[in-house]
Specification:
By secondary structure, this protein is mainly α. The chain contains three helices and no strands. Keywords: Membrane, Transmembrane, Transmembrane helix.
Length: 66
């Protein structure tokens, strides 16, 4: 039987390339040197991913308490 690939992939995996692109563009708008751009983008990627993971965990916790 045919299983569509997009039906199997969790929607949260699509957030990672989007967060990476946002981090790179934002960092590139602040710095000109590639080293500084990549360091800033990496920090921003971790911060955004952490905030989203924390928000997801809080919402899941609230949802399971009801």
């Amino acid at each position: 039987m045919f299983v569509p690939i997009l039906g199997v992939i969790n929607a949260y995996w699509f957030a990672l390339p989007l967060i990476l692109a946002i981090s790179l563009v934002y960092a590139a708008s602040r710095h000109e040197a590639w080293g500084r751009i990549l360091r800033h983008a990496a920090r921003l990627f971790v911060m955004i991913t952490g905030v989203l993971a924390l928000a997801t965990a809080i919402l899941l916790l609230i949802n399971t308490q009801v």
